[in-house]
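Re: the 553-residue chain
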Amino acid sequence: MRVEFTGERVIPGQVNADLLNEHLARYAFAARLARGKRVLDAGCGAGYGAAELAQSANSVVGVDIAAEAVAFAREHYGLPCLTFEQASCTALPHPDAAFDLVVAFEVIEHLPLWRDFLREVRRVLAPTGQFIVSTPNKLYYAESRRRAGANPFHAHEFEFDEFRGELSAVFPHISLFLENHVEGVAFRPVQAGGAGETTEVRVDGGETPPAESHFFVAVCAHRPQTGHPTFVYVPSAANVLRERETHIALLEGELRRKDDWLEEAKRDLADLDREHRKLTAELEESNRWAGELDSELAARGTRVEELQEELSAEQAAARAHIQELREELWAEQAAASARMQNLEEELAADRAAASARTQSLEDELATERAAAGTRIQNLEGELATERAAASARMQSLEEELAADRAAAGTRVQSLEEELATERAAVRAHVQSLEEELATERAAARRRVQELEEELWAAQAAAQATIDELDRENRAKSEWAAQLNAQLDAKMQELAQCVAYLHQAEKTVDERTRWAQQLDTEVEQLRRKLALLEASAWVRLGRRVGLGPGADPQ
């Protein structure tokens, strides 16, 4: 498994020798106190330090909260007495007094709950055990990272007095050490000696003040400790000067490549600068356009307000006019209703009169019919009488004829002629009576027809008046509908103006976001330039007098 170096933890093979030796020196310092003990490496990282302690300890447990770090350590450092666990340093999964030695190098500054961590170490530490903890000097560390900025993985950095005070609040006995890089000269025998060979170290010069030291290292315990000797760590090297010369040659080659890369970066930066100027000009143009758009938007807003006021005035006038028309319509409807009521009353009166006249005519007709019937009956009675008389007369005549037939044939003929004359006279009189009756009936029918024609004429006039009122009502309704359509058209025009206003606001928002995006890209370019100027290779080149010397802007 491969773990990338991000600056949070040291990965052997991915950092320079000075940084790695800086960390290995602390484990070499602790290895002297780990012989035959139960050791906990809190915040073990990639596991190289726990492997160093396992060379002399009875057992070593490496703990780290990062799963990828634990997996890397298990894969690369497999020793019988060495195990790795994933756990939090503020909640260790171990019983009380489980370890004789606990080490935590460059861990405490990464923990937001570092006081909980100190109390947890005190819990798992045996009564006779020791706790070795280190942290960078806040003052020196801030100065060394002045260009690069604060370490994003650090939660709390310590100055010397604060570091000592926090440790003393948890552990009654502490011994403090200052870790620094120093120049030295080593004399090592060509042939290694026997087992009893010793190493002599001479340290000249005054002591380094804590405020100027690189790192603080503390050995903490529950009980008093004896002795706190100076420890010097010399990394394995055949010839430091030759290694430095080789390293400088490599650095010079690397610097040449970096110079080429820097020149290319400068050209890219120049291109980016030109692009930035172009984008700035476009931004200014966009801002100018946005200003014009704001002015136009303000003008349109004013025009919309004017239109709204005009529309409000027109709506008020229209409402007043509609109200007047409604009142007129209501008045005309009331008048029409009254007129229709009058016409209906007149029609009812005419109908009553016509009905009375019809009844009168019918009564007259009935009277006439009765009189005619009576007259006819009288005539029929008279006819019957005449017929009876004629019959009697005929009987008499027949008797006379029978009596006189024999006497004179001429007399019979005379009597027959008289009888025929009488019969003709009776038939003529009956015919006259029937003609008078037909005449009276025709006159009655003509009078009834005249009355019906008068009634139809009155009904037609009333219906014409009603139709005229209906046409006037429909005309007024159509005029009101046209007025409502005009109002709707005005409302649509206002809605369109509002839509134009919303579109203009949307365009302004889009231009503003585009301008903000340009500002963000410019800021990203500036950060990239700052990262370039803060590159470790560039700083190293400046330190040895090589490479470009341009200061970051």
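Residues 240-404 form the longest helix (165 residues).
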